[in-house]
User: Which sequence fits this backbone?
């Protein structure tokens, strides 16, 4: 899937970058993390410090420092957030507070995405194009964003188009060393490129951007057929138009296309060892039109229209030929809008509505795999209201209620309330208490009810269940925090999530016994009740210009109430740490990102666990010219990697990865 020309070009970056890192220019530094504006928790702009809904932010400068190429790489160092590889795909999903990815809502500018597998979004498919920041809100926020937000929200905020003419180009390449599938240690096994050009003035702007990512995969034994890490190509292209007809009005249109081609190879099969593989092609076409309007007197309205068409086609192959050709087509259409107005001196009220329609078709070898051999669809209509009450200068209470009408499951109400009480000592130290209670609600999606995941080549099948019931939850959050002159800060948050009718995959023994090929059959089912609880904590210190340290620790407990045993794949302890610093060479900065995760149950009923691990990433950035930055890094410096012969080992798939690259900006703003 790649040419020798590209391989030569990207491999040539290695000596060039490391040579350039020995010389000098201007430092990379920007302060003010606590002053970052966020919108996800309340749908109105607040700083990280002042928002009554605890929000964690991945800033644009953090994305730049750590050289994140996609959303997965940008989220990897968020405290308490877990990234899980999607079985049978080269992708990752997000878990929050012990709640799995099916219950975490991933948004782009407040609008949802369609999942290419299961019920979860593959966050490795979202390239870091035109990103202003990423906001993470944990716990049930269904009263704000509707079904599927029981575990929290990850909201990707994109940049508008500014005045002037600008261009950007960035490229990087790296090697897995002895685990390159080519068998060549210094080959460019993974590389990517990103480019954008924009033009605008005070009233209009247009931007065209694109990215391309390629990986040969990861293979500890290149001479064998099986390859633990999949080969893939991912390509994105986006066009954005902004129009500001007046100072308080803005219209934006965005159109994008995403393509992914991936190839898996495996050998271990039920009943014998046969070399097989799977090819998968994904295409996402997405368009949005949005408006933001105000009258200059406190009344503001926001609306957005979305349509997305997703196709996901797979086929398996062996020496005997191609088989199991699957074609899935999914569509998502949504219209959303809300108005906000001040009511008296102490209240700000928001009223909004969401209308959504989803469809699903799936065929295997030209024959529908869905019940009744027809397209399935689902419609939802939701109304919500929120009141922000400024009780006193230092006390704010945000309450909300969402009513949902689903075409298959009827009506449901989801309330929430959050509060923030601040304290100031007048000498630079400020502190606060945050508290919140929210009701979560999630309707089983079309895939869980009707889809059939046939991975018999991997030893299992997962069937949909049309009898599923909706999930509901109550989430409790209580935290304290403080800062000294915004240079030293801490935040400690306790959480408790109580979930009813949790949807999980469970063994279908009757269907398994009816087969003759040793394939295990699973089916989606409702667990009566599950709980997750724990404590999240973060601390940071802006030591001086260019120097910063921060750390986060998360303790999580889980329980299936019916059995009293732990839920699987939830580690009890997680630790993140980061250090940013400068060198004695003018313009050369460095960053370290470290992660530790305790062991986790793979099957708690049998006491089977995946081992603990630690990973460290090291990054270098060097500003050669104001327009040119060179960078390099080592991901997973500790080389933490799973034992591929142990089915209970879920440590990282990829070992140590060494890479270099450059980015260039041109034009003026």
Assistant:
């Amino acid at each position: 899937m790649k040419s020798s020309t590209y391989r030569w070009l990207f491999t040539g970056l290695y000596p060039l970058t490391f040579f350039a890192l020995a010389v000098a220019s201007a430092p990379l530094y920007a302060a003010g993390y606590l002053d970052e504006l966020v919108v996800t928790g309340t749908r109105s702009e607040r700083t990280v410090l002042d928002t009554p809904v605890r929000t964690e932010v991945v800033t644009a400068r953090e994305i730049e420092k750590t050289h994140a190429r996609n959303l997965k790489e940008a989220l990897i160092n968020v405290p308490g957030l877990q990234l899980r590889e999607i079985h049978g795909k080269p992708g990752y999903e997000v878990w929050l507070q012990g709640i799995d990815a099916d219950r975490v809502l991933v948004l782009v500018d407040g609008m949802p995405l369609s999942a290419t597998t299961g019920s979860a979004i593959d966050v490795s498919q979202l390239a870091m194009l035109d990103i202003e920041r990423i906001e993470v809100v944990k716990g049930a926020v269904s009263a704000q964003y509707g079904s599927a937000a029981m575990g929290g929200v990850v909201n990707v905020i994109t940049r508008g188009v500014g005045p002037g003419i600008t261009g950007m180009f960035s490229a990087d390449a790296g090697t897995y060393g002895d685990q390159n599938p080519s068998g060549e240690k210094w080959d460019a096994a993974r590389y990517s490129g990103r480019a954008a050009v924009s033009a605008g003035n005070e009233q209009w702007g247009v931007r065209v951007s694109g990215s391309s990512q390629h990986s040969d995969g990861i293979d500890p034994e290149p001479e064998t057929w099986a390859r633990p890490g999949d080969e893939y190509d991912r390509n994105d292209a986006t066009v954005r138009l902004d129009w500001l007809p007046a100072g308080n009005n803005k219209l934006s249109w965005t159109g994008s296309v995403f393509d992914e081609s991936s190839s898996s190879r495996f050998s271990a099969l039920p009943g014998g060892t046969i070399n097989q593989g799977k090819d998968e092609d994904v295409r996402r076409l997405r368009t949005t039109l949005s408006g933001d309007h105000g009258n200059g007197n406190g009344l503001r309205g926001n609306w957005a229209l979305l349509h997305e068409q997703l196709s996901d086609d797979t086929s398996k192959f062996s020496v005997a030929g191609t088989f199991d050709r699957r074609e899935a087509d999914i569509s998502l259409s949504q219209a959303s809008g809300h108005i906000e107005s001040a009511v008296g001196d102490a209240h700000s009220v928001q009223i909004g509505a969401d209308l959504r329609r989803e469809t699903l078709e799936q065929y295997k070898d030209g024959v529908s795999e869905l019940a009744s051999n027809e397209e399935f669809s689902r419609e939802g209509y939701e109304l919500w209201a929120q009141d922000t009450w400024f009780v006193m200068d230092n006390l704010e209470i945000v309450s909300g209620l969402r009513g949902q009408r689903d075409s298959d499951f009827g009506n449901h109400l989801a309330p929430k309330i959050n509060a923030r009480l601040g304290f100031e000592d007048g000498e630079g130290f400020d502190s606060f208490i945050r508290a919140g209670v929210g009701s979560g609600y999630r309707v089983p999606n079309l895939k869980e009810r009707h889809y059939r995941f046939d991975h018999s080549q991997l030893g299992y099948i997962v069937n949909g269940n049309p009898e599923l019931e909706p999930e509901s939850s109550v989430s409790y959050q209580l935290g304290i925090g403080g800062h000294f002159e915004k240079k030293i800060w801490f935040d400690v948050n306790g959480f408790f999530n109580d979930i009813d009718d949790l949807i999980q995959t469970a063994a279908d023994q009757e269907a398994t016994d009816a087969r003759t090929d040793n394939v295990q059959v699973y089916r989606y089912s409702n667990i009566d009740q599950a709980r997750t609880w724990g404590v999240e904590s973060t601390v940071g210190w802006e030591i001086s210009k260019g120097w910063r340290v921060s750390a986060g620790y998360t303790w999580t407990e889980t329980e299936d109430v019916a059995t009293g045993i732990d839920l699987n794949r939830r580690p009890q302890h997680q630790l993140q740490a980061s250090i940013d610093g400068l060198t004695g060479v003018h313009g050369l900065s460095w960053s370290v990102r470290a992660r530790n995760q305790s062991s986790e149950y793979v099957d708690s009923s049998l006491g089977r666990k995946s081992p603990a691990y630690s990973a460290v990433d090291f990054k270098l950035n060097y500003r050669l010219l104001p327009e040119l930055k060179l960078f390099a890094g080592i991901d997973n410096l500790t080389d933490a990697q799973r034992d591929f012969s142990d089915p209970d080992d879920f440590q990282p798939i990829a070992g140590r990865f060494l890479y270099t690259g450059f980015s260039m900006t041109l034009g003026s703003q």
About this structure: The helical segments are 4-11, 13-20, 60-66, 71-75, 142-145, 446-450, 509-513. The longest helix spans residues 4-11.
